[in-house]
Automatic annotation (TrEMBL):
<dbReference type="GO" id="GO:0005576">
    <property type="term" value="C:extracellular region"/>
</dbReference>
<protein>
    <recommendedName>
        <fullName>GDSL esterase/lipase</fullName>
    </recommendedName>
</protein>
<keyword id="KW-0442">Lipid degradation</keyword>
<dbReference type="GO" id="GO:0016788">
    <property type="term" value="F:hydrolase activity, acting on ester bonds"/>
</dbReference>
<dbReference type="InterPro" id="IPR036514">
    <property type="entry name" value="SGNH_hydro_sf"/>
</dbReference>
<keyword id="KW-0964">Secreted</keyword>
<comment type="similarity">
    <text>Belongs to the 'GDSL' lipolytic enzyme family.</text>
</comment>
<keyword id="KW-0732">Signal</keyword>
<dbReference type="Pfam" id="PF00657">
    <property type="entry name" value="Lipase_GDSL"/>
</dbReference>
<keyword id="KW-0443">Lipid metabolism</keyword>
<dbReference type="GO" id="GO:0016042">
    <property type="term" value="P:lipid catabolic process"/>
</dbReference>
<dbReference type="InterPro" id="IPR001087">
    <property type="entry name" value="GDSL"/>
</dbReference>
<dbReference type="InterPro" id="IPR051238">
    <property type="entry name" value="GDSL_esterase/lipase"/>
</dbReference>
<keyword id="KW-0378">Hydrolase</keyword>
Length: 148
């Protein structure tokens, strides 16, 4: 599983430290995540010859979340910027006793860092059925299950 676009999380957006893109995302954090993900995906090809009985699948959650943030309404979301819950002072986890949104299925992020269940469901569906190598590599989970 790839790193998510961490520069687009509510926590990163609230920090106001670095260069932002037109969606308010921290470009440096996203570039770091993208670099990590590229190396992680390449490890699938490196490990397979060393462990021939293994079957690894790289799931690009970064792409799924990035696409949702770029066009939230295309997947039924209305808020790709704000956390569903009231976050504590450091802006990551929900504040104890704090308020939560009325409908978390409309939010991309539940707290300052983590995607909502609705986003995770889209990632899981994608991992299971996508045939695009830039989304799952080298095979999807549906094909992996058939191997066993």
């Amino acid at each position: 599983m790839s790193l998510n676009p961490i520069g687009c999380t509510p926590m990163a957006k609230a920090m106001h430290l670095r260069e932002k893109n037109n969606k308010g995302c921290d470009q440096k954090l996203n570039q770091a995540a993208h670099l990590f993900n590229a190396h992680l995906k390449s490890m699938v090809d490196v490990i397979k010859p060393r462990m021939p009985a293994s079957n690894l699948v790289y799931v690009n959650s970064y792409k799924v979340i990035r696409d949702i943030i770029r066009n939230p309404s295309s997947t039924g979301f209305s808020d790709a910027s704000n956390p569903c819950c009231e976050v504590a002072t450091i802006g990551v986890l929900c504040k104890r006793g704090g308020s939560t949104c009325a409908n978390r299925t409309h939010h991309v992020f539940f707290d300052g860092l983590h995607p909502t269940e609705a986003v995770n469901e889209l990632i899981a569906r994608n991992a299971y059925a996508s045939n695009l190598e830039n989304e799952v590599y080298p095979i999807n989970i549906k094909e992996l299950v058939r191997i066993y």
